[in-house]
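Here comes a specimen:
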Amino acid sequence: MESLISTFHVDAGLFLAQVINFAIVFSILYFFAFKPLVKVMAERSERIDKSLKEADEIEQRLAKTASEQDEIISSAKRQAALLIEEADKRGEERRSELVAKAKEEVGLVINNEKAKLAREKAETLKEIKRDVADLVVAVVEKVLAEKMTSAKDQELIKKLVK
């Protein structure tokens, strides 16, 4: 072992100091760089998962609303058919009045449901846009805050002005 140490000129004191220095540098990097970075990445993953879950919920609500709309339309059509049969029994004059009334009701129900669906869709899109905008702003802030120097800042300003 002595010959190996003397051959490679290994100094035990220097080696021990290097090991201690490595441990100090590693600890500093771990606590001030790696650990916060892992935390930020985990939070971002959670936000992305939350956004995906919300998007799935929105899709489910839209599908549910569409099925409810179909159900309401079919229900309205059934009601209209019943009104038409009843109008036939009462006579030709009464029949025309009931048919007009049924058609008007169906039109109102359909228009109301279309308006409701459009409002819900617009609200959902606004929520999604707001969430995406928040995520983009957070990412841009993080990227710009970490790597911007005054020279890079001036270069970015020149590019944006052109």
Notes: Helices lie at 2-8, 12-90, 92-147, 150-161. The chain has four helices and no strands.
